[in-house]
C-alpha cells in the first residue's frame, strides 16, 4: 500500500480562521459571473420563446375578434365578391368537421388495434418493426401525406379527383401514429395484476382486453384521440392539394371540392388587398385579411377547446385505480 | 404466435421454445369455455396483428403510390417535360428543377435548426434545472402550446406581423454585416425572405426539440449531479459536467426530429417566402429560394397531369430526405433507450 | 487542512417536516468521526448539512450554526459553492463521471478553478491523488480509459481521489462501503486510516463493526418514532460508546436489540 506522504497536502495547511473565512466567502469571480450570466441567458431563452406565443395569441384575437360573430359563423362565401362586407366560414366549418371526423373514423380503429397489438400481443420482429415505423410515420411531412392520398385515389379513380374523403385519408396517415402512440402509452399504464386477475377467473384473453384493459384505459385513450384531432384539424397543405377550395356549402364527402377552415385562412390571405375605388363606401380593402384572421381565431379556439375537453376528460374519468 | 394453437402441439414438440410457450400455458383459460372462446380470441388477435401490419403496409403504400404517380415524370425525356410542364420552363431537366428546391428546403430547415436548437436547449434546462419544481410541468405545457398553433396561423402571423417587425433588423444586419455573403445583397423591403421563414420554422420546431431535450435532461442521474456539486461546481458547471454530456445523444436526436419537421413544413414557407429558383445563400433578398413542400402546394392546384407527376417526383425526394433524417433520429433514440435500460 | 467543526443548535427541515432536531457536537481535527444509528434517523441528512449539500434538495433548509474553525458555514456572506470545495464528499454509491476518463475524473474539481493547469502539473496531481487513494498501481496504465470500467471498490477509491485532489479541509463520507464487497470495503477502511493523518474525516455507516474499526469518535443518532425528528443521542470516544455508553438507547442499539 502506498503511503499517504505522496498525497496532495492541502494548500492552506495552516489556514488560519481568517484565511479560511475568506476562502469560504469567495468563489473565483469569473466563475460566479459565468454562472449568473448563464442563469440569465437560460431564463431569457424561456422568455424569448414566450414572445411569439403571446404575439400570435394577441394578434389572432385582436384582429380576429372584429369579424368573429354569428353572421360569420353561419354564412358561406357563396356569391361573395370584391370588397363587399359579407362572407363567412359556415361551409369551411362543415368541411373541416366532416373531413376530420371521417379521418378519425379511419384512424381510431387502426390506431387503437395497433396499440393493442403492441401492448398485448406484440413480440419479435413484427412488433419492433411496427414500433419503429410508427415513429417514422410521425415524421412524414403533411404535404407528402396529401400527395399519397391524391396518388392513391388517382390510381383508382383516375386523375384530377378532388373530394373530401381524399383529404380524410391524407389526414388519417398523419393521425394514425399519434393515436397509436398515445393509446399505447395508456394501455401500458394498466397494471398487469388486473389482466392476470381476470385471466385467472377464466375470462378469455380478448374479453380481458376489451372489458378490463380498454375500460380501464378509456379516459386516457379518449384524451389521446382528442389531442390527435387537435393536431390534425389545423393541417392545411394536404387538404389544399386533395380537397381544393370551394365557396359554397358541400355536405358530401364523396363528391366535389369542399372548403376547410385552414384552407379558408390561406385562401383569404392569398387573395390579398381588394382594390377599392375611392367612392365605393361599402368596399372594405382589407376584408380578406379580416376574414383570414377571424377564421384563424375560430381555428385556434377549436384547437384550444379540443385540448381543454381532453384535459377535462382525463380529470373527470381517470380510473380510480391509477391515482 | 403459438398462443392460440390447440392443446396438441405442446406435446408434439417436446423441446420447443420456452419463451413463447410459457406465456400461453399460463394465460390459457381453464374449463369448458375454452373451445368456445378460442375462435373469438383468435379472431381478435389476428385483427390486432393485422392492424399493426397495416401500418407497415400504409408506409410502403405511401412510397409505392408516390413512385407510381411520379413514374411519368421520371421516365419522360427532359425535352418532353420542359415542353409539357409550364412551371419547368426555365429548367433543362427534372434534376435541374429539383436541385434548387432541395437546396432551398435544406437551407430553410438548417436556418430554423440553427436558431431553434440553442434556444430549445436553454428552455429545456430552464424547465429541468432552473425553474421551481412546482412550476416545471406547467411551463412545459406552455411551451407545448406553441405546437398547438396550426401552421397556417403561423404563416399568417409570419407574413402579416413578424415580417414587418424584422425587416428593419434585417436592414441593419445588411448594413453592418453585409460583408458576410449570407447578409449581402439588396434587402427585401417586405421582410418576406428566407431568414424570416427560418425564424417562424424555428418557433414551430421549438416545442418538439424542447420536449425531447427536457426528458433526457431530467434523466441525468442525481448521483452525478451531486458529485459535481460536492466538488464545488456552480449550477452551470454542474450542468456542463453532467447534464449536457449525458443528454448529448438525446439532444442530437431531438434536433433531427426538429429538422424533419422543418424540412416538410409547407404553409409557413408558402405564405411568407417570396419565392425564387436559385442556388442562393442570400438570406435577406427576395425571390431567391423555394422549398419542395411550398412549391408543391403552390403549383399543384393548377398543374397539368404531367405537371402533377413532376411535383409528386419532388415530393418523393422530400419523403426520402425526411425518412432518412427521422430514421436516424429514431435510431439514436432507440440506442439510447437500450443503454439506459441496461443500467 | 484538518479543521475542527462545531455544530450548534442545528435543526434540519424538509419543507415543514423537521428531520433532525437540536444537534450540538464537535468534530475533532485529524480524526475519524463515525455517525451510527438506525435507518431514517437523519445521520446522512446531518452529514449533508456539513458541506451545504442538504440545500440542493428542493424545499430543504437548515436552522442553526455549523462552524469550521470559528467560521459559520451558514453565515449570509458564505458561498455554498466555496464551502463544498473546502469540505469534500464521498457518496454511498460510487459516482465517477462516466463521460470522463479516469484522469479527467480526478481533475474534474481542479479544472473548475484552474482551467489552464499545465500538463505536467496535471499529471503530478493525478498521480499524487490516485496514490493518496491507494489506486495508482491499479490504474496507472489506463488513465485515459473511462472510470466506469473499474470495479465498484476501485470506483469508490477514484471518487476519494477526486475528492482529495481539490485539497479539501474535511472529507465527508456517506456510507462509502455499503455498495461494496468485503475486500473492497477493507481497502477503503485502510485508506480511511491513512487519510486521517491529513484530513478531518466524518463517516456515516450502517455497519457498527466498521465504526468500531475505523473511527476515533462515534456519534449515535436515533429517532423517537415515525414522523418524529432524529436526534443526536450521544457522542464520545469510540471505545467508550462501544464499551460503556451513557445512554440506554445506545447500548440497546450497539448490542443489536433494535435497529
Automatic annotation (TrEMBL), chain A:
<keyword id="KW-1003">Cell membrane</keyword>
<feature type="transmembrane region" description="Helical">
    <location>
        <begin position="212"/>
        <end position="233"/>
    </location>
</feature>
<feature type="transmembrane region" description="Helical">
    <location>
        <begin position="161"/>
        <end position="180"/>
    </location>
</feature>
<feature type="domain" description="ABC transmembrane type-1">
    <location>
        <begin position="93"/>
        <end position="310"/>
    </location>
</feature>
<keyword id="KW-0812">Transmembrane</keyword>
<comment type="similarity">
    <text>Belongs to the binding-protein-dependent transport system permease family. CysTW subfamily.</text>
</comment>
<dbReference type="InterPro" id="IPR005672">
    <property type="entry name" value="Phosphate_PstA"/>
</dbReference>
<protein>
    <recommendedName>
        <fullName>Phosphate transport system permease protein PstA</fullName>
    </recommendedName>
</protein>
<feature type="transmembrane region" description="Helical">
    <location>
        <begin position="131"/>
        <end position="155"/>
    </location>
</feature>
<keyword id="KW-0592">Phosphate transport</keyword>
<keyword id="KW-0813">Transport</keyword>
<keyword id="KW-0472">Membrane</keyword>
<dbReference type="GO" id="GO:0005315">
    <property type="term" value="F:phosphate transmembrane transporter activity"/>
</dbReference>
<dbReference type="InterPro" id="IPR035906">
    <property type="entry name" value="MetI-like_sf"/>
</dbReference>
<dbReference type="Pfam" id="PF00528">
    <property type="entry name" value="BPD_transp_1"/>
</dbReference>
Automatic annotation (TrEMBL), chain B:
<dbReference type="InterPro" id="IPR011864">
    <property type="entry name" value="Phosphate_PstC"/>
</dbReference>
<protein>
    <recommendedName>
        <fullName>Phosphate transport system permease protein</fullName>
    </recommendedName>
</protein>
<dbReference type="GO" id="GO:0005315">
    <property type="term" value="F:phosphate transmembrane transporter activity"/>
</dbReference>
<keyword id="KW-0592">Phosphate transport</keyword>
<feature type="region of interest" description="Disordered">
    <location>
        <begin position="1"/>
        <end position="34"/>
    </location>
</feature>
<feature type="transmembrane region" description="Helical">
    <location>
        <begin position="43"/>
        <end position="68"/>
    </location>
</feature>
<keyword id="KW-1003">Cell membrane</keyword>
<dbReference type="InterPro" id="IPR000515">
    <property type="entry name" value="MetI-like"/>
</dbReference>
<keyword id="KW-0812">Transmembrane</keyword>
<keyword id="KW-0813">Transport</keyword>
<feature type="transmembrane region" description="Helical">
    <location>
        <begin position="307"/>
        <end position="327"/>
    </location>
</feature>
<keyword id="KW-1133">Transmembrane helix</keyword>
<feature type="transmembrane region" description="Helical">
    <location>
        <begin position="101"/>
        <end position="127"/>
    </location>
</feature>
<dbReference type="GO" id="GO:0005886">
    <property type="term" value="C:plasma membrane"/>
</dbReference>
<dbReference type="Pfam" id="PF00528">
    <property type="entry name" value="BPD_transp_1"/>
</dbReference>
From TrEMBL, chain C:
<dbReference type="InterPro" id="IPR005670">
    <property type="entry name" value="PstB-like"/>
</dbReference>
<dbReference type="GO" id="GO:0016020">
    <property type="term" value="C:membrane"/>
</dbReference>
<dbReference type="InterPro" id="IPR003439">
    <property type="entry name" value="ABC_transporter-like_ATP-bd"/>
</dbReference>
<dbReference type="Pfam" id="PF00005">
    <property type="entry name" value="ABC_tran"/>
</dbReference>
<dbReference type="InterPro" id="IPR017871">
    <property type="entry name" value="ABC_transporter-like_CS"/>
</dbReference>
<dbReference type="InterPro" id="IPR027417">
    <property type="entry name" value="P-loop_NTPase"/>
</dbReference>
<protein>
    <submittedName>
        <fullName>Phosphate import ATP-binding protein PstB</fullName>
    </submittedName>
</protein>
<feature type="domain" description="ABC transporter">
    <location>
        <begin position="5"/>
        <end position="248"/>
    </location>
</feature>
<dbReference type="GO" id="GO:0016887">
    <property type="term" value="F:ATP hydrolysis activity"/>
</dbReference>
<keyword id="KW-0547">Nucleotide-binding</keyword>
<keyword id="KW-0067">ATP-binding</keyword>
<keyword id="KW-0813">Transport</keyword>
<dbReference type="GO" id="GO:0035435">
    <property type="term" value="P:phosphate ion transmembrane transport"/>
</dbReference>
<keyword id="KW-1278">Translocase</keyword>
<dbReference type="InterPro" id="IPR003593">
    <property type="entry name" value="AAA+_ATPase"/>
</dbReference>
Amino acid at each position: 500500500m502506498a503511503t499517504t506522504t505522496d498525497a496532495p497536502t492541502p494548500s492552506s495547511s495552516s489556514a488560519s480562521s481568517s484565511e479560511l473565512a475568506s476562502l469560504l466567502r469567495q468563489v473565483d469571480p469569473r466563475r460566479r459571473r459565468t454562472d449568473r450570466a448563464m442563469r440569465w441567458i437560460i431564463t431569457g431563452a424561456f422568455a424569448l420563446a414566450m414572445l411569439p406565443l403571446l404575439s400570435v395569441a394577441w394578434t389572432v384575437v385582436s384582429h380576429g375578434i372584429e369579424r368573429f360573430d354569428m353572421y360569420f359563423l353561419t354564412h358561406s362565401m357563396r356569391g361573395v365578391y370584391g370588397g363587399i362586407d359579407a362572407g363567412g366560414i359556415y361551409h369551411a366549418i362543415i368541411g373541416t368537421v366532416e373531413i376530420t371526423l371521417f379521418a378519425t373514423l379511419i384512424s381510431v380503429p387502426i390506431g387503437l388495434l395497433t396499440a393493442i397489438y403492441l401492448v398485448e400481443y406484440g413480440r419479435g420482429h413484427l412488433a419492433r418493426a411496427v414500433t419503429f415505423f410508427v415513429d417514422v410515420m410521425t415524421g412524414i411531412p403533411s404535404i407528402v401525406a396529401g400527395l399519397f392520398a391524391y396518388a392513391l385515389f388517382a390510381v383508382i379513380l383516375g386523375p384530377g379527383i378532388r373530394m373530401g374523403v381524399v383529404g380524410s385519408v391524407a389526414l388519417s396517415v398523419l393521425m394514425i401514429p399519434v393515436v397509436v402512440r398515445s393509446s399505447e402509452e395508456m394501455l401500458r399504464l394498466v397494471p398487469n395484476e388486473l389482466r392476470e386477475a381476470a385471466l385467472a377467473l377464466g375470462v378469455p384473453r380478448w374479453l380481458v382486453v376489451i372489458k378490463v384493459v380498454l375500460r380501464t384505459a378509456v379516459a386516457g385513450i379518449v384524451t389521446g384521440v382528442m389531442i390527435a384531432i387537435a393536431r390534425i384539424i389545423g393541417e392545411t397543405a394536404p387538404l389544399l392539394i386533395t380537397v381544393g377550395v370551394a365557396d359554397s356549402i358541400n355536405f358530401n364527402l364523396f363528391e366535389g371540392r369542399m372548403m376547410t377552415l385552414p384552407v379558408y385562412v390561406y385562401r383569404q390571405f392569398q387573395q390579398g388587398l381588394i382594390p377599392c375605388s375611392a367612392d365605393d363606401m361599402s368596399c372594405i380593402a382589407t376584408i380578406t385579411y379580416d376574414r383570414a384572421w377571424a377564421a384563424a381565431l375560430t381555428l385556434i379556439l377549436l384547437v384550444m377547446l379540443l385540448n381543454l375537453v381532453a384535459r377535462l376528460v382525463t380529470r373527470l374519468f381517470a380510473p380510480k385505480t391509477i391515482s | 404466435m403459438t398462443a392460440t394453437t390447440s392443446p396438441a402441439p405442446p406435446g408434439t414438440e417436446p423441446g420447443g421454445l420456452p419463451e413463447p410457450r410459457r406465456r400461453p400455458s399460463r394465460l390459457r383459460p381453464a374449463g369448458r369455455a375454452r373451445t368456445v372462446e378460442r375462435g373469438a380470441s383468435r379472431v381478435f388477435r389476428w385483427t390486432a396483428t393485422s392492424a399493426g401490419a397495416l401500418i407497415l403496409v400504409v408506409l410502403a403504400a405511401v412510397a409505392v403510390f408516390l413512385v407510381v404517380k411520379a413514374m411519368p415524370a421520371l421516365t419522360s425525356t427532359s425535352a418532353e417535360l420542359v415542353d409539357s410542364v409550364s412551371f419547368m420552363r426555365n429548367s433543362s431537366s427534372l434534376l435541374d428543377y429539383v436541385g434548387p428546391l432541395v437546396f432551398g428546403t435544406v437551407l430553410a430547415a438548417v436556418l430554423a435548426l440553427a436558431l431553434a436548437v440553442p434556444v430549445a436547449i436553454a428552455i429545456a434546462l430552464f424547465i429541468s434545472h432552473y425553474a421551481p419544481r412546482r412550476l416545471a410541468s406547467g411551463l412545459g405545457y406552455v411551451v407545448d402550446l406553441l405546437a398547438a398553433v396550426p401552421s397556417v396561423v403561423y404563416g399568417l402571423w409570419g407574413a402579416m406581423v413578424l415580417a414587418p417587425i424584422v425587416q428593419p433588423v434585417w436592414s441593419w444586419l445588411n448594413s453592418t454585416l453585409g460583408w458576410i455573403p449570407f447578409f449581402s445583397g439588396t434587402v427585401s423591403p417586405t421582410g418576406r425572405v428566407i431568414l424570416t421563414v427560418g425564424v417562424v420554422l424555428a418557433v414551430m420546431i421549438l416545442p418538439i426539440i424542447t420536449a425531447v431535450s427536457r426528458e433526457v435532461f431530467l434523466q441525468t442521474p442525481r448521483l452525478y449531479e451531486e458529485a459535481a456539486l460536492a466538488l464545488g461546481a456552480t449550477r452551470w458547471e454542474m450542468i456542463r459536467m453532467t447534464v449536457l454530456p449525458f443528454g448529448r445523444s438525446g439532444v442530437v436526436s431531438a434536433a433531427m426530429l426538429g429538422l424533419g419537421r422543418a424540412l416538410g413544413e409547407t404553409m409557413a414557407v408558402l405564405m411568407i417566402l417570396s419565392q425564387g429558383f436559385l442556388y442562393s445563400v442570400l438570406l435577406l433578398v427576395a425571390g431567391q429560394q423555394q422549398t419542395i413542400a411550398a412549391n408543391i402546394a403552390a403549383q399543384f392546384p393548377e398543374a397539368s397531369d404531367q405537371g402533377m407527376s413532376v411535383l409528386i417526383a419532388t415530393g418523393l425526394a422530400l419523403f426520402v430526405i425526411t425518412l432518412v433524417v427521422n430514421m436516424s433520429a429514431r435510431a439514436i433514440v432507440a440506442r439510447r433507450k437500450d443503454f439506459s435500460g441496461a443500467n | 487542512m484538518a479543521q475542527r467543526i462545531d455544530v450548534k443548535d442545528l435543526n434540519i427541515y424538509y419543507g415543514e417536516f423537521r428531520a433532525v432536531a437540536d444537534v450540538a457536537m464537535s468534530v475533532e481535527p485529524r480524526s475519524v468521526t463515525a455517525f451510527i444509528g438506525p435507518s431514517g434517523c437523519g445521520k446522512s441528512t446531518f452529514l449533508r448539512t456539513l458541506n451545504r449539500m442538504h440545500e440542493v434538495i428542493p424545499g430543504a433548509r437548515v436552522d442553526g450554526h455549523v462552524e469550521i474553525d470559528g467560521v459559520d458555514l451558514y453565515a449570509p456572506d458564505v458561498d455554498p459553492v466555496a464551502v463544498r470545495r473546502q469540505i469534500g464528499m464521498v457518496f454511498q454509491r460510487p459516482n465517477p463521471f462516466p463521460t470522463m476518463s479516469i484522469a479527467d475524473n480526478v481533475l474534474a474539481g481542479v479544472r473548475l478553478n484552474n482551467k489552464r493547469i499545465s500538463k505536467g502539473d496535471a499529471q503530478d496531481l493525478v498521480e499524487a491523488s490516485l496514490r493518496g487513494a491507494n489506486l495508482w498501481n491499479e490504474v496507472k496504465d489506463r488513465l485515459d480509459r473511462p472510470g466506469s470500467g473499474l470495479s465498484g471498490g476501485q470506483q469508490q477509491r477514484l471518487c476519494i481521489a477526486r475528492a482529495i485532489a481539490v485539497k479539501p479541509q474535511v472529507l465527508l463520507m456517506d456510507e462509502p462501503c455499503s455498495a461494496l464487497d468485503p475486500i473492497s470495503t477493507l481497502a477503503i477502511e485502510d485508506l480511511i486510516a491513512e487519510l486521517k493523518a491529513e484530513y478531518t474525516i466524518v463517516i456515516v455507516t450502517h455497519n457498527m463493526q466498521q465504526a468500531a474499526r475505523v473511527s476515533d469518535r462515534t456519534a449515535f443518532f436515533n429517532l423517537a418514532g415515525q414522523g418524529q425528528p432524529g436526534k443526536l443521542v450521544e457522542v464520545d470516544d469510540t471505545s467508550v460508546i462501544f464499551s460503556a455508553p451513557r445512554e440506554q438507547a445506545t447500548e440497546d442499539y450497539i448490542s443489536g436489540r433494535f435497529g
